[in-house]
Amino acid sequence: MTLHLPPGSPVADLPWIITIGALDDEEEWEPLVCGPYERPHALALAQAVVADEELMAVVEPLLPLADADAIRAEVALAKSGAGHDATTDDLTAETFDRDEPRRTTPGRPPTRAEVRAGFARIAAKLTSADQ
Q: Order of strands across the sheet with 55-61?
């Protein structure tokens, strides 16, 4: 599952994580959380992993919050039920499991080199003075 973003959403530029878990609640193992990735890489990797497995993948943005006050503010916002910003009102869920049709076309899984280049771009964003 992931968020369907409206065109131009600033959320798309955030780092994204993938949580891989069991499709069946009866399986007992801890979900795997991996990332951060750029959104297209996260979508393609999630799709590639669950394509032939009885797994579910959740792809979601990672908020680069730099201090406890910022985290508390986001927790309060989440508890209030308000969206992260004006664009989140247009978000819808998409399911990525092997029994559901894919409504997003993330493309082929990225190569190791492409993912590492994405890591470098994410690191540059997270450490820029503009943040």
A: 32-37, 16-22, 55-61, 2-4, 92-94
3 Cβ contact list (under 8 Å, min separation 6): 11, 59, 60, 61, 91, 92, 93, 94
Chain-centroid distance, C-alpha 28: 23
Which of 69 and 94 is assigned the larger pLDDT?
A: 69
Instruction: Residue 106: name the closest of 50, 55, 66, 68 by CA.
Output: 50
Q: What is the pLDDT of residues 19-28, one digit of tens each?
A: 999 988 888 8
Evaluate if pTM is beyond 0.90. no
Q: Count the neighbouring beta carbons within 10 Å of the beta carbon of residue 23.
A: 14
Tokens matching residue 102: 């894919």
Domains of the chain by residue range: 2-127
DSSP summary character for residue 124 = H
